[in-house]
Input
Amino acid sequence: MTRAAILDAALLLSAREGMEGLTLGMLADAMQMSKSGVYAHFGSREDMQVAVVQEYRRRFELDVFLPAIGQPRGLPRLEALFSNWINRVSHEIAQGCIYIGGAVEYDDRSGPVRAALIESVGLWRSALLRACKQAIAEGHLRAGTDPQQLLFEMYGLILVLHHDSRFLKLPGCVKRASDGFTRLIDACRAH
Output
């Protein structure tokens, strides 16, 4: 078994069981290999959890960030980032999001797994903030728009999308999040 195949299984398990629920033994069982075989690829449970966070970030960037970079700077890029993000979350509803689940699990803990989660989420937030600032600089959004507030409200839409669709199992949440983003942007749009 390759490290990539083990990471695939670890991503699925951690999305379902949480990062803390992910163990070398559970992963070995899922992969039908020995614990020592899994251990040889990671060295420790914590190293495996960090590798899972890093692989999740890599895939998130491939699905959400990189396709949007091809869009023109400003609002077209910001809209693509958010649309890609909603699309990603809508596919994760059945299994869970490592960033959101990890935030709950590690909000009051310290250590390398929390640090990896914070780094990954921080990079994503920085990219979104940069896109918000570019939309303002390009004149697509009003000059007085607060990019931090815009980021906060965009993040809020994603969190409620995840909560209402995954936890409450309410229908129509993806459309509500998309409509909420449209209203948010319309309120900030330069006229």
In short: The mean pLDDT is 93. The CA atoms of residues 14 and 21 lie 7 Å apart. The chain is about 75% helix and 0% strand. The two ends are 57 Å apart (CA to CA).
